[in-house]
Amino acid sequence: xxxxxxxxxxxxxxxxxxxAAAEKAKGLLEQEGRDDLALRxxxxxxxxxxxxxxxxxxxxxxxxxxxxxxxxxxxxxxRMSAPYLTGATIDFVDSIEKQGFTIDxxxxxxxxxxxxxxx
Length: 119
Prior knowledge:
Strand order of the largest sheet: 4-5-2-3-8
CATH class: Mainly Beta
Shape: globular
Order of helices and strands: EHEEEEHEEE
Oligomer: single chain
């Protein structure tokens, strides 16, 4: 099943965050009660296919970060992860079958059966 969502920013550089993903992330930040955090998207070694995605709130600003603003939500991608994530679309799905953030990455050549890692 493919879920179509409108994006809050259409860009060839960096990641693309859908309106649903931006809204969910901003809601989670409001629950934390902090306005100094950004959503960090990173790629780390691990999983059955070699690489895994990491999404978390971060107060750090690292040298070389790509920073994008999605309607007031800052999204940071470190310089090592950026080549793996250019053009990737982050969405939030809330259905009977599945709930959570999803990443559609045109740079991934394959993924594992569980869908948690890619190469």
